Each structure stands twice: as structure tokens, then as C-alpha cells.
Amino acid sequence: MSLRDDLGLLTPRLRRYAQALSNVVHIPSEGADALVQRTLMHALQTGPLNPRSDMTVWLYSLLTQFHRDAQNRLHGATAAGESRSLYGSAISDKPVGHGHAPDGLGAGLAALTLEEREALLLVVLEGFSYGQASHILRIPRGMLIARLAHARAALSNSIGAKISPTPLPRRPPYLRVIK
Asked: Which of 5, 10, 162, 178 has a Cα at 20 to 30 A from 108?
């Protein structure tokens, strides 16, 4: 298969990931589409650096970096609440909201840092292994696992706090004593 064929097959997956990253911070889907377009154009122009490397991992790595670059351009590298990532670029610790707060899962994802959200989406939504996801994010595997654990705990707490537990109806015991 040619590079164009591979890109055509991977485009829906890239679009899903870009939308999941962008929708949490209320960027219109046009922004996600532009992100995918930039990734595909870069891939067509440069081609993979290593022909034996995994094309999917390489494209997700490009898309993730382009998303981070876009976030930095949108919000400035010196805004309050930002930290430096391993890439040397500023990453916002807080979600970016524009007017309305999402509820449920969306609110839980929005409460995560960008780095935790990326890790969670790559492993849970896209189905990458820990090794592949750590390669995409360019972090050690242990750091990825720590981010996932923190993201899952925060998401569980966020969603669990919004759902009021209702007691289940009591089931009759299996055995009854009959006199």
C-alpha cells in the first residue's frame, strides 16, 4: 500500500482523536479538522523518517504535537497556570472553557490536565498499548502509567461525585426457611 492509502485508512481514527482532544476544550470541530489536515499534509510532504516505524504511532505523535502547538498559540506561553512539559513547550494545567461547562464525562475530561487527557484518550479511546502511547507522547512508560492512574482516579471521582447513589432494592435470600 502507498502512503496515500495508509493515510486514507487512518484519517477517521485521527479525526476521532483530534475531536476528542478539541471538544473537551470547546474548540469547534473545524479546529479538529484543521489539525488532522495539517497532520496529513505534513505526512505527505515529509514522509516517515524511518520507513520501518509504525505509521499509526508516527501520525498520532504528529497530531499530538500539533495540538500542543495550537494550544500554546491560542493561550500564550506565559499565561498563569502553565507548566513546562518534556517537550519544552508550555502546557496549560487547566481546561479552557468558553462560556458553558460540560456535564458528566465531558466535565470529568475537561477537569484533567492536557497531558493526562492525552494519555487517557490514547490508551482508552484509541486502544494503544502503554509502549505505543508513551512513544507518541515522548515520555517514559512509567510516567504514562502514572498519568493514566491519576487521570482515571480524577475521572472516577468527578463522575462519581455527580451521580447520586440510589440504594438497590433488596433481593430476597436464596434459601428461605419454611416452617
From this structure: 10
